[in-house]
Amino acid sequence: MTESTPEDARRKAREICFDLLAARPRTKEELRQALTRKGVDEEIREGLLGKLDDAGLVDDAAFAEMWVRSRHTHQGLGRRALVAELRRKGVDPEIATEAAGEIDRDAEDERARQLVRKKLRTMTEVDERKATRRLLGMLARKGYSQGLAYAVVRDELRAAGAESTPLDDLGD
Question: Would you tell me which of 3, 59, 144, 154 could form a disulfide with 167, CB atoms 3.0–4.6 Å apart?
Answer without folding.
Answer: 154
